What we know:
Blueprint lengths: L3 E14 L2 E14 L3 E5 L6 H8 L7 E10 L2 E2 L5 H7 L4 E5 L12 H13 L3 H14 L16 H14 L4 E5 L7 H18 L2 E5 L3 H7 L2 E6 L2 E7 H6 L4 H9 L15
Parallel strand pairs: 3-8, 3-9, 6-7, 7-8
Antiparallel strand pairs: 1-2, 1-4, 4-5, 9-10
Helix pairs in contact: 3-4, 4-5
Amino acid sequence: MTDTLLEIDNLNIDYLVDKGEFRAVSDVSFTIGKGEIFGLAGESGCGKSTIAYAITRLSKAPAWIAGGSIKLDGQDLLRLPERELQKIRWKRVGMVFQSAMNSLNPLMRVEAQFHDVLFRHTGCSREQSRARGEEMFRLVGIPAHRISDYPHQFSGGMRQRIVIAICLALQPELIIMDEPTTALDVVVQREILEQVVDLQRTHGFSVLFITHDLHLMAQLCQRIGVMLKGRLVEVGDVRQVSTAPRHDYTRKLWNAIPQLPTHEQSSGVMA
Ligand code: ADP
Ligand code: MG
């Protein structure tokens, strides 16, 4: 047992396109500690989502994982058969994507969607999944009785919270959040992220938090990696990356958005 939960080494991912192959992720290596919130930043198209999908091997053609390893607690996910991976997805590694709120089935009550996920992974009864769902609703700040409603009866922010609740219900060790709140307005975005940080503190899971917004990331994460054109150009703790960036591109990213209070300067939940 070590303090490292996820260890990515020399990951290379190509997209096989008409003109040949295009390397979207080049020799990327980083680790995420147990109970750590790690941020992956970089402008649109630099390869963040390509990495996120590769971790749970949800990459679809034309993506091709050309090399490297992705170890979860020492076990290389790139070498596991699909049958074993199914036990890891959601149960050990949860995922919340930008458009996750649209992944809820509009024709099913939320309660039934909780049951589907929980039953598949734990074989629990309807009563058990309802009870667990209500508990998770309370955790993400939605009145428990509303679990009987349909997705369209909730706002976008609430639906995104529901997806986070479903993800947390299985108590994964790692949650990958790829631009989880980008589709939401700034106030709702902040509320949801504050809640995730709170839950992380009480439940101790690790988070891979992906966004193009470095300032938001600085308020949430302990360590940050910065990507540029498929490469990880800088990794360090938030203080170092924000006050003494080693790479010119990181400096440019900081200057690209007006300065907000950082981790150290702000008070409140996210400080
Ligand atoms: P990010 O999440 O950082 O915005 P992505 O990982 O989505 O970036 O994309 C990385 C690069 O791979 C981009 O240049 C993008 O155009 C390319 N890419 C992503 N998906 C595909 C695909 N299905 N086919 C071909 N190229 C792709
Ligand atoms: Mg992306």
